[in-house]
Amino acid sequence: LSQEAKMAQVFRDEARAASRIGSENIVEIYDFGELRDGRLFFCMELLPGKDLVPASEEAWTEPSVLIGLLRQICKGLGQAHKHDIVHRDIKPANLLLDQEGTVKILDMGLARIAAEAGANDAPEQLTTTGQVMGTCDYMAPEQAEETHSVDQRADIYSLGCTFYRLLT
């Protein structure tokens, strides 16, 4: 397959997997497909709110508020991990707080999806050897060395960095 066809297959695999997660703490994907001109798309829920970038909200420095947000993020990540999905880019900008106070994990675009049980082949790789994906400030050291082999622990590391950044 061409690189473009591989990328399209990765997009479809990730959209399909993300749409099956079913967590109130992950942005829901309603549909995905390909336009007549070959461009790929997905439709996701509209979420009025703001991301958790620290400069945009001072109240997050209150530990009790931040711990409540952290619980919600853990709940969403737990659901993704149950479906063998590793986000690989947990950071404040990929966490949205909606108007009801619910945190939603955004941007599953770098997610790594483990091979489905019983599948003969692993999904196509989104990255090539030596290519780093993620945000360095929040990235687990092992992800910087080998993007393909990271597991749920990389998300937990990134969540710890995010929590520290929001708290300080």
What tags apply to this protein structure?
single chain; 168 residues; alpha+beta; three-stranded antiparallel beta sheet; two-stranded antiparallel sheet; globular
Could you characterize what this model shows?
About 11% of the residues have low confidence. This protein has a three-stranded antiparallel beta sheet with strand order 3-5-6. A two-stranded antiparallel ribbon has the order 1-2. Helix 2 packs antiparallel against helix 4. The chain has four helices and seven strands. Helices cover 35% and strands 15% of the residues. A hairpin with a 5-residue loop joins strand 1 and strand 2. By secondary structure, it is an alpha+beta fold.
Q: TL;DR?
A:
The chain contains four helices and seven strands. The N and C termini lie far apart (47 Å). The protein has helices spanning 3-19, 63-82, 141-145, 152-167; strands at 29-34, 40-44, 49-51, 85-86, 95-98, 103-105, 112-113.
Strand content: 5-15%
The structural class is alpha+beta
Strand arrangement, largest sheet? 3-5-6
For the biggest sheet, the summary is: 3 strands, antiparallel
Whole-number mean pLDDT: 80
